[in-house]
Amino acid sequence: MSKKNPSFLGPNDIVTTNTGHPDPHDEGDNNMVSEGSLYAVSYYNVLEEELGTES
Q: What are the start and end residues of every segment in region (Disordered) (predicted)?
């Protein structure tokens, strides 16, 4: 009797192939990653200024 590995993907799930570390030569992807990382830092800085607290 052979066992099949259970699949964690459903019939409507999309498998992405461009995940993980960005390609250093893909400028569009690198810009998107840098903008996404700066969003959280900018949000934190604005919040700190509005609350007037210092760490």
A: 1-33
pLDDT of residue 32: 77
The C-alpha R_g of the chain, in whole angstroms, comes to 20
Asked whether 20 and 29 are in contact (CB, 8 A), the reply is no
Residue the block writes with tokens 């700066």: 38
pTM of the model: 0.39
45 vs 55: CA distance, rounded Å: 11
